[in-house]
Structure prediction request, 372 residues.
Amino acid sequence: MRVAFFTECYRPIVNGVVASIDALRAGLRAQGVNVTTIAPRFPHFTDDARDVVRIPSLPLPTATAYRLCVPYLNADDRRRVRGIELVHAHSPFVTGWMAVSYARRHRLPLVFTYHTRLDAYAHYAPFDRATTERAMVTLTRRYANAADAVVVPTQSMERRLRELGVLAPITVVPSSIDVERFAGGRRSALVRARLGADGDEPLALVVARLGLEKNLELALDAVARSPGLRLAVVGDGPHRSSLEERARRQGTSNRIRFVGALAPDRLPDVYASVDAFLFPSTTDTQGLVLVEALAAGLPVVAADSEASRDVLGPAGRLVAADPDAFAAALGAALGAGRDQSAVHLAYSRYTVERQTRRILALYEEVLAAKAA
Prediction:
């Protein structure tokens, strides 16, 4: 089978969407599926594989790593995507509509994975926020209804799309990680020191893009109410300076270390070297870092949301998005220690092999329907 992925968000960007796409690509390729990925070209970045087709792109008017795609395939690129049997879109923007056009022109089935609540990112647009949110909702509904099948990572996102007016068939398939790799991380005094903790000092962890939509102020405020606790914040983004200033104002900058973005291969040892994981976001469609924390057996404290309930199931502590409640739950989590049942949950729900089987079954279903 030959499949084309169309995505606006891809390497060198490092985030949950890219990790999810790469995990699915690896799983499909292991099953003999030929996956070609169409993604924007980035300055000074070269792919190490021929199965990634880069299209022209321009910088956006806002301060962001993302690019404005130009929907153009040259003659060589068109040859590289010949023989595609199914189109899988991972974005409803320019590359997404390229996917629609390609699928319709060649009479191919179109699958769309809903990775991101676009309306939660409306504050980045240089327009009125309410107007932008409505536009993103309209775009999401229109795009999803253009697909033969829609994939969402949690049941709560299926309910959300139905509320938005999506009528297309929806399948719930959680995004996956290499569970064995995250379960095999090693606790290290050197890693703990780099994260800001000496000896046995309690150390909590946040892994996130540092954006306003991630609600990271909640984690900082909870640490301010937890004397003696240290926090490592792994990730980068446009909200970093504001968060660092908040820590300074609260007098916790000596207990909170902003580590910056780390290479993915370093993360298993980071999870293994901390004592608890904090997830303050209520806007994620799944939260891949929640799954990574589960696989590492960490006690998790998450702001209560439908998506986090779906991901964590019986594991973790879901609390109101309130600093006092978060701090209290964090104290209980630190006292409870590591949770082997969380590791079992990750193996039962979030492996690449499980995701691949379910996506392949969906591919076969939509191919059969298109043939009929």
About this structure: DSSP finds 15 helices and 15 strands in the chain. Residues 119 and 133 are 5 Å apart (CA to CA). The longest helix spans residues 352-371.
